[in-house]
């Protein structure tokens, strides 16, 4: 059994929480006491049916206001897969939450109300999903019961969205007509839509192929922590020096020739150690400890790669940045702290090339700053070199966060598009 | 463990993620500690810590907030495990907080030290100047926890502000704090109750005996079976009887209920957990039943 992480985008009105409630309920991941609490609250509020969205809106303020404020994580499993849902609010003021949820997602579900069709916010969700390089996208056309389960309406929406998605360089795209409220095509195929020949949403989630979404080609091992037992009583451990980290790309094997950055020195992998014994190979997302043949001075923030396949060693970076605070604005000469893989550096904004309208994709080159929930292309200069790949090539070595030194808040997320 | 198509099982992915989190803390904080209660989640967390730094010892102390109302079997287990690992254990005592006048003991039949623990915990964090505190909480336990970050910022009063959390992207964690503030770190955020049990089974990890079915003197309150013990106040209208029970969670004797069960092995517990229709906290924790937002309110104050 493997894990599929997926993000859901949409607003309360699109039936997103109802869909998640339905998936949890029909896969028996909701328990009787949770259901009783929701039924009680639904009754108290005078709702006619059990409001499954109450299952996911966990904070007091959310229940009071009937909105989703923050990313919530939900879990369920079928015999085939464990699922982690990042449930993200869909309104424009929560763009940062959607970016957050999408950053780790294998798949995103965008909900569209069949009556309303492709709205501005649907385009925004699709754009953000593509920007964050979520490998698989599902367009769930919801509330099919309210358009008489019309095939024509579904096709109309599919065509409109496909035309838009072609501009985005969107990933693997699947359309499924559903009714989250009544459960049509959610867990099993609906009898109300015999014209639909695809699978149910849950079946798609269970079977979509994700193993090859990881980068298994470019060896990238950011050194996270150096393990030195300093054990005085056990001689065999006295000289032990292991480089611990989580594999960010490629497949490593004992005996492989590897290169250390920033030194550029080459050596071989002596062993791949774990508590459970030495391994024949390591690949993403495994956390392992490497021992090397030669004694090289290696510390946290360094990178281990292959001599003929190296990341860019860069201090000047072009990136798409999503700004996440209303405290300060991003502008030329903003000074920030940048955390990339296991390396943290100070950085200064050299240039805001343009601000992108997330609804129309229009590039505003006259923009001089980015505010909360705005996205733009930025050139950064860092105080020390980073070992980076394009985000499109590797999400682990292509993504970074920006931290405001004054408040210690995480204020931005960056996706590298070019480096030198 | 691994197949040629490079798929990784869910337990391996969860373990790798938790190890990454622990190493990140060890690398970026000065004074971390790990909350160890002897409950199943903290036992799993401790095993992950062992793996993260092997062959070196775990590079931080363990801390237990001892209410004085714990199950004796669990305290025995705690001490044995600490000795095996040759780890350092800091015990923060709720009784000491009461004696020092920091908190007032609750009175009456439902008196519990659950809420008092928060003060003891925060005082200990301040006294030892811990800047990162590992907890075994999981997001599937409770809906307020479902919204919490893996690295959860606490101000210098130890408070959690759910509306003002740091965005958390990819596997990049913002570890920056000022003096007096700290981060609660939850390496098992993405594990479910079943994942915990499958991991205990796979790793062959020892757990306290009260997780397995045993005969115990209990009484019934609010549909829960509470243990008959000196620290638990019982009314005359709450008769004692013997039952075959086990515990799904391990907390204070005063607020942790047992469930009727005949499961004597981890396999049987897994079958039982997979078939149950009631959440672990709903079935066994009086402390979460106070209101819809009981956990959210306690967490804001600085609870685990």
Concise synopsis of the structure shown:
By secondary structure, chain A is α+β, with helices and mostly antiparallel strands. Chain A has three domains: 2-213, P-loop containing nucleotide triphosphate hydrolases (Rossmann fold); 221-305, Beta Barrel (Elongation Factor Tu (Ef-tu), domain 3); 312-419, Elongation Factor Tu (Ef-tu), domain 3. Chain A is 20% helix and 34% strand.
Under the CATH scheme, which architecture of the largest domain in chain B would be assigned?
3-Layer(aba) Sandwich
Largest sheet of chain A: 7 strands, antiparallel
CATH architecture of the largest domain in chain A: 3-Layer(aba) Sandwich
Strand order of the largest sheet of chain B: 3-2-1-4-6-5
Instruction: Supply the CATH class of the largest domain in chain B.
Output: Alpha Beta
GO molecular function, one term (chain A): GTP binding
Organism (chain A): Planotetraspora kaengkrachanensis
Keywords (chain A): ATP-binding, GTP-binding, Nucleotide-binding, Nucleotidyltransferase, Transferase
Protein name (chain A): Sulfate adenylyltransferase subunit 1
Write up what this structure looks like.
The complex is a heterodimer of chains A (420) and B (304). Chain A is α+β, with helices and mostly antiparallel strands. Chain A folds into 3 domains: 2-213, P-loop containing nucleotide triphosphate hydrolases (Rossmann fold); 221-305, Elongation Factor Tu (Ef-tu), domain 3; 312-419, Elongation Factor Tu (Ef-tu), domain 3, CATH 2.40.30. Helices cover 20% and strands 34% of the residues of chain A. In chain A, strands 7-13-10-11-12-9-8 form a 7-stranded antiparallel sheet, with no helix packed on it. Chain A has a 6-stranded mixed sheet with strand order 2-3-1-4-5-6, with helices on both faces. A 6-stranded antiparallel β-barrel of chain A has the order 14-20-17-16-21-22. In chain A, strand 17 and strand 18 form a beta hairpin. The longest helix of chain A is centred in the middle third of the chain and has 16 residues, at 151-166. The mean pLDDT of chain A is 90. Chain B is of the alpha/beta class. Chain B folds into 2 domains: 10-195 and 293-301, 3-Layer(aba) Sandwich (Rossmann fold); 209-288, no CATH class. Chain B has helices at residues 10-28, 40-53, 72-85, 94-99, 117-128, 193-203, 266-275, 280-284, 294-301; strands spanning 32-35, 62-66, 89-93, 132-134, 151-154, 182-185, 214-221, 224-227, 241-247, 258-260. In chain B, helix 1 (10-28) crosses helix 2 and helix 6 (193-203) packs antiparallel against helix 7 (266-275). Chain B starts with 9 loop residues before the first helix and ends with a helix. Chains A and B meet through helix 2, helix 3, strand 2, helix 4 and strand 9 of A and helix 1 and helix 2 of B.
């Amino acid at each position: 059994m493997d894990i599929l992480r997926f993000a859901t985008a949409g607003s309360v009105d699109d039936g997103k929480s109802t869909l998640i409630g339905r998936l949890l309920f029909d896969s028996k991941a909701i328990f009787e006491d949770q259901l009783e609490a929701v039924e009680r609250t639904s009754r108290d509020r005078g709702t006619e049916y059990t409001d499954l969205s109450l299952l996911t809106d966990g904070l007091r303020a959310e229940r009071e206001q009937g909105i989703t404020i923050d990313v919530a994580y939900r879990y369920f499993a079928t015999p085939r897969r464990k699922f982690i849902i990042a449930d993200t609010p869909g309104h424009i003021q929560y763009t940062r939450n959607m970016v957050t949820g999408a950053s780790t997602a294998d798949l995103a579900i965008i909900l569209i109300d069949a009556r309303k069709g492709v709205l501005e916010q649907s385009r925004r969700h699709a754009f953000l999903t593509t920007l964050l390089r979520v490998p698989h996208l599902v367009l769930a056309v919801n509330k099919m019961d309210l358009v008489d389960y019309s095939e024509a309406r579904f096709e109309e929406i599919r065509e409109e969205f496909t035309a838009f998605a072609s501009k985005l360089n969107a990933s693997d795209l699947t359309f499924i007509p559903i009714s989250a409220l009544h459960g049509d095509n959610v867990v099993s195929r609906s009898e109300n839509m015999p014209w639909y020949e695809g699978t149910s949403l849950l079946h798609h989630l269970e079977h979509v192929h994700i193993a090859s979404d990881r980068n298994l080609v470019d060896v990238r091992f950011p050194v996270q922590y150096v393990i030195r037992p300093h054990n005085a009583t056990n001689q065999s451990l006295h000289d032990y020096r292991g480089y611990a980290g989580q594999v960010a790309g490629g497949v490593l094997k004992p005996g492989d020739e590897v290169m250390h950055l920033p030194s550029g020195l080459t050596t071989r992998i002596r062993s791949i150690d774990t508590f459970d014994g030495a391994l024949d190979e390591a690949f993403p997302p495994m956390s392992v400890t490497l021992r090397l043949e030669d004694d090289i001075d290696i510390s946290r923030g360094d990178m281990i790669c292959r001599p003929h396949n190296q990341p860019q060693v860069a201090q000047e970076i072009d990136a798409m940045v999503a700004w996440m605070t209303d405290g300060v604005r991003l502008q030329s000469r903003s000074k920030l702290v940048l955390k990339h893989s296991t390396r943290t550096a100070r950085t200064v904004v050299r240039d805001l090339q343009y601000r992108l309208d997330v609804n129309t994709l229009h590039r505003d080159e006259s923009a001089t700053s980015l505010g909360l929930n705005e996205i733009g292309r930025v050139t950064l200069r860092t105080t020390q070199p980073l070992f980076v790949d394009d985000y499109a090539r590797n999400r682990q070595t292509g993504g970074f966060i920006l931290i405001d030194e004054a408040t210690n808040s995480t204020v931005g997320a960056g996706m590298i598009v070019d480096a030198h | 463990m691994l197949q040629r198509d490079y798929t990784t099982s869910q337990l391996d992915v969860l373990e790798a993620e938790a190890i990454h989190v622990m190493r990140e803390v060890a690398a970026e904080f000065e004074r971390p500690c790990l909350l160890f209660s002897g409950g199943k989640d903290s036992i799993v967390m401790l095993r992950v810590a062992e793996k993260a730094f092997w062959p070196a010892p775990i590079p931080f102390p363990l801390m237990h907030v001892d209410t004085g109302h714990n199950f004796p079997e669990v305290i025995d287990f705690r001490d044995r495990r600490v000795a095996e690992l040759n780890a350092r254990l800091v015990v923060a005592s709720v009784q000491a907080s009461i004696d020092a006048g920091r908190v007032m003991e609750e009175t009456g039949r439902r008196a519990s030290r659950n809420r008092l623990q928060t003060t003891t915990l925060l005082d200990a964090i301040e006294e030892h100047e811990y800047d990162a505190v590992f907890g075994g909480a999981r997001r599937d336990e409770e809906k307020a926890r479902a919204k919490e970050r893996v690295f959860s910022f606490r101000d210098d009063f130890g408070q959690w502000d759910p509306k003002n959390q740091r965005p958390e992207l990819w596997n990049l964690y913002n570890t920056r704090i000022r003096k007096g503030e700290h981060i609660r770190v939850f390496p098992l955020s993405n594990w479910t109750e079943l994942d915990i049990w499958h991991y205990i089974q796979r790793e062959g990890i020892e757990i306290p005996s009260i997780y397995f079915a045993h005969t115990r003197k209990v009484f019934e309150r609010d549909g829960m079976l509470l243990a008959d013990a000196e620290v638990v106040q019982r009314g005359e209208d709450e008769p004692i009887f013997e039952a075959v029970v086990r515990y799904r969670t391990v907390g204070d004797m005063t607020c942790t209920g047992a469930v009727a069960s005949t499961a004597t092995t981890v396999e049987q517990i897994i079958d039982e957990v997979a078939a149950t229709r009631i959440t672990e906290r709903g079935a066994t924790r009086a402390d979460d039943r106070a209101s819809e937002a009981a956990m959210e309110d306690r967490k804001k104050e600085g609870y685990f």
